[in-house]
Amino acid sequence: MQKPRQYKRCLQALTVTAALALPMVSLADEYMMVQGGKLNLRQEPSLEAAVLGQYPTGTWMNVHEEMGAWSKVTVGDKQGFVMSKFLTAGSSSGTLYVRTNTGIGLNLREEPSMSSNIITSFKPGTAVKLLSRGTEWSKVQVGDAIGYMSNRFLTGSLNNGSGSNGSANTKQGVVKNPGANQVLLLREKPSTDARVLGNFRNGTKVTITGESGDFYKVTVAGKDGYMMKQFISVTTSGTTSAFPTAPFAAKLVNPNGNSIVNFRKAAGLSAPIIKALPVGTEITVNEIGETWCKVTVDGVDGYISRYFFTVAH
Questions:
Q1: In the structure, what pLDDT confidence band is assigned to residue 3 with cuts at 50, 70 and 90?
Q2: How many CB atoms lie within 10 A of CB 29?
């Protein structure tokens, strides 16, 4: 028996509605971590859009799509948009490393809370096995000990660790104000509106442990905070000395435990991906930058983070 035309239209409408209700999953999803202070999750990719929540450094986010300056992400039970420049690559599974700027060990706790009992503590650079990832805490295993560590003190790369263990990613600098009697402010966050933690005169030595926009993340006089880049003169860089003079041959590695490395059109996490290259791929490094290096792969020029290759021998 032939169905009436109206019945067919209703059936088609129901089919379309059901299809639209299905969740859209991208095969290119990857986990990235918030860096540089609290990050706003917005309803739309715009600074004028409504804020759905704020997430501190160390928060894991599932990145579905990169859209230039913005990334579409899911964090917890919320989905929205964040600025791409405040996300950094991290390990979503496998091995993480303890990272503290003071050199003091990181506590392993019984529960994901600062008030929970401390099982033991581990020094900077210690490798930990990630069992499950939360928004602010991760369940980890170190040897036979299992517990929780704060995400803000875990990194996906041993080179990203910092502290008294002499990480290769730290740099030295000195305060260089325009005037001899001026002082440079150390701030709690990378903002000129942030609370001032101290002030320092020309010639003061600082250890640079990271970057956030116009600010360096530094350790100075036993304090951690942020100083404006334009008033710091970088004196040495441990990471640059680890490489020979460009150009040189190298092979891709991934300290995060993943089997691929993103090869991008420009320097930055928001730059389009040319191709995902397997670990072990041979590349030619043409220019060395503080974070990104210009490389050639099979005759194609692009950029790869300096943490994802080693010198070929």
A1: very low
A2: 14
Is residue 289 within 8 Å of 240, Cβ to Cβ? no
| Residue 16, phi then psi, degrees to nearest 5 | -65, -45
Residue 53's Cβ-count burial label (10 Å; 0-12, 13-18, 19+) is middle
Nearest to 142 by CA among 157, 159, 120, 113: 120
Single-letter amino acid, residue 254: N
Beta strands per DSSP E along 163-281: 171-175, 183-187, 196-201, 205-212, 215-220, 223-228, 232-237, 248-252, 260-264, 273-278
> For position 153, what pLDDT does the model report?
81
Instruction: Quickly state the pLDDT bin for 248 (edges 50, 70, 90).
Output: confident
Nearest to 198 by CA among 172, 227, 171, 176: 227
Going by the DSSP 8-state scheme, the letter that residue 134 receives in this structure is -
Which residue, 213, 212, 209, is CA-closest to 234?
Answer: 209
Both structure tokens of 25:
């999953």
Structure tokens at 22: 């299905």
Given a contact cutoff of 8 angstroms between Cβ atoms, the answer to whether 184 and 190 are in contact is no
Identify whether the C-beta of residue 64 lies closer than 8 Å to the C-beta of residue 72: yes
Give per-residue pLDDT as tens, 196-225. Answer: 888 888 888 888 877 777 888 888 877 888
* 3-class DSSP state of 181: coil
The answer to whether residues 184 and 228 touch, using CB atoms and an 8 Å cutoff, is yes
